[in-house]
Amino acid sequence: MVKVKVFDSTEARNSKRKPLEAPPTDAKAFYEVVDSRRSVRIYTDEPVPEEMMRRAMDAALLAPSSSNLQVWEIHWVRSENKKAKLAEYCLGQPAAVTAQEIVVFVARPDRWKANNDHMLRILKANPEAPAKALQYFGTITKLVYNQGPLGFFRPFKYLWLAIRGISKPTPREPIHLGQMATWAHKTTALAAENFMLAVRAEGFDSCPMEGLDSKRVKQLLGLPRRAGITMAVSVGKRAQGGIYGPRFRFDATRAIHEH
Ligand SMILES: Cc1cc2nc3c(=O)[nH]c(=O)nc-3n(C[C@H](O)[C@H](O)[C@H](O)COP(=O)(O)O)c2cc1C
């Protein structure tokens, strides 16, 4: 029989952690934002207030991130010259060409170590930092995310996790650089969705775009080889005809499976 140390919920509920009140929420307002977000391909000339962009980017950074390592970057392309280049590198799509603003969400798997070190510095400067957090960022993340130079540790990690996995539930990924890229893109995509929902909540519109030349976009933004473009997101106000058709989704039974 598989032996696993199972989380003891009674012990946790009786712990000394301070109780946190869950603030009231407005579900109706939330679903209105979700329902009315559409990918807008043509925008009006109405400018987007800078403050709105900043609030939406701050909302993006409130997205959850794996191990809270925040391996995302948001590149807000503001110079007219660069914006025109970016629209060209987004293959001249109307959603980019007519955009008032464009931001690029960038996944930085290569930043995990720097961010981990930054987290440790912040924790060590805080006398009340929980020992568990120090242990997590001091030991566990290093075991999980360090793939060695050019992913050299892969066969060793694979073997170790495969053997461990025979007798107990074991996290299997990420064990190579490709999986590190996926790991960082997941987190970064959540930030992009937060951003788009915030833009809609502010009364503006957006369009996510991965139809772009990632190599040229990376050069334009001065990014290193291992940075990944998760998506560009254009922002503006929907113009007449800017939404190409009614929203279409497959039947939910194709996607939602109950077990
Ligand atoms: C990762 C991603 C990449 C996308 N890339 C493009 C794109 O390059 N150009 C475009 O016009 N729409 C793009 N879209 C928008 C989708 O086509 C759109 O979300 C989908 O058709 C559903 O429509 P809705 O967003 O209005 O609900 C992208 C969406 C996602 C999530």
- Give the termini distance in whole angstroms: 23 Å
The H/E string reads HHHEHHEHHHHEHE
**CATH architecture term of the domain at 35-109 and 146-244:** 3-Layer(aba) Sandwich
**Percentage of residues in DSSP E strands:** 5-15%
Structure at a glance:
44% of the residues lie in helices and 10% in strands.
Could you walk me through the main structural features you see in this protein, from its secondary elements to its overall organization?
- The protein is of the alpha+beta class.
- It has a domain at 35-109 and 146-244: NADH Oxidase.
- The protein contains ten helices and four strands.
- It starts with 8 loop residues before the first helix and ends in a 23-residue tail after the last strand.
- It binds flavin mononucleotide.
SSE arrangement:
Elements: H1 9-13, H2 27-36, H3 50-60, E1 72-77, H4 80-89, H5 94-97, E2 101-107, H6 112-124, H7 131-145, H8 154-167, H9 177-201, E3 205-209, H10 214-221, E4 228-236
Helix pairs in contact: 2-9, 3-9, 4-10, 6-7
The structure holds flavin mononucleotide (FMN).
Please supply descriptive tags for the structure shown above.
259 residues; alpha+beta; NADH Oxidase; globular; binds flavin mononucleotide
